[in-house]
Amino acid sequence: MKQTPEIPADWLAEFEAAARRTLEQRMKYAFIHTYKPVLDDAKYRAFDTMADYRKWCEENLPSWLGYGRV
Amino acid sequence: MAAFEYRQAEEIRDAFARNGVRYLFIGKSGAILLGFPDTTQDADLFIEKSADNARSLISSLRELGFKLTEAQAREIERGKDFVQLKDGPFDLDLVFAPDGIERFEDAWRRHVNVEGFPVCHPDDIVASKISANRAKDREGLPRLQAFREYWLERNKGT
């Protein structure tokens, strides 16, 4: 394994392991689906600006989903 | 709704290529295409914001099975910064003006081709996460930045 001092060893091991997988395998492990309240309750949403979207998230989504700005 | 699959990414790639859509995978889904080992729920696409590109995008989305009404199609064509689709074969977030990236053209110039998938450069993915400054992004940012370092080292000279 290549030594990259600034990257923690456990993360580096994960990156190296992922690099050995095919793209199809990486995607199979990466994409999951869980229900997100409110966010998943509409089939279509569109926002004129990203600021409008961020504001909507902060005002409507449960904070624990993590969509609020820090 | 099942999780997004490789086959569906191929369908996006092929439909968008047929219709000439200018786009890039961005966000964590883009990082995953680059090799970042993590989990996510949706595919995020950075779409070039122009009326022509929007029309090509709408044709592609309909080919893929997204049920867009005429009113929704017109709305996208007129120009939105963010569209969330959950009425198709998979969930898709369409981002026309991602935080932290000035112009599509700049991101396109830096983009990475991963087995035919156009993906934002890791610098742009990290920049957009920093700029969005959401709690969920902040938590995973140090690991994503470490992956960026790893990716740059691994792809040095290519």
Kindly describe this structure.
- The complex is a heterodimer of chains A (70) and B (158).
- Chain A is mostly helical and 70 residues long.
- Chain A has two domains: 1-31, no CATH class; 33-70, no CATH class.
- Chain A has three helices and one strand.
- Chain B has 158 residues and is of the alpha+beta class.
- Chain B contains seven helices and six strands.
- Chain B has helices spanning 6-19, 27-34, 51-64, 70-78, 104-110, 122-132, 135-154; strands at 23-26, 43-47, 82-85, 92-95, 112-114, 117-119.
- A four-stranded mixed beta sheet of chain B has the order 1-2-4-3, sandwiched between helices. A two-stranded antiparallel ribbon of chain B has the order 5-6.
- In chain B, strand 3 (82-85) and strand 4 (92-95) form a beta hairpin.
- In chain B, helix 2 runs antiparallel to helix 6 (122-132) and helix 6 runs antiparallel to helix 7.
- The chains are: A mainly alpha (70), B alpha+beta (158).
- The interface between A and B is large, with 46 and 53 residues.
> What overall form of chain B do the CA principal axes indicate?
globular
The gyration radius over C-alpha positions of chain B equals 15 Å
| DSSP strand count of chain B | 6
**What gap, in angstroms, lies between the N and C termini of chain B?**
38 Å
* CATH architecture designation of chain B: 2-Layer Sandwich
Widest β-sheet, arrangement of strands of chain B:
1-2-4-3
Total helical elements of chain B: 7
Largest sheet of chain B: 4 strands, mixed
Helix count of chain A, per DSSP? 3
Helix percent of chain B reads 40-55%
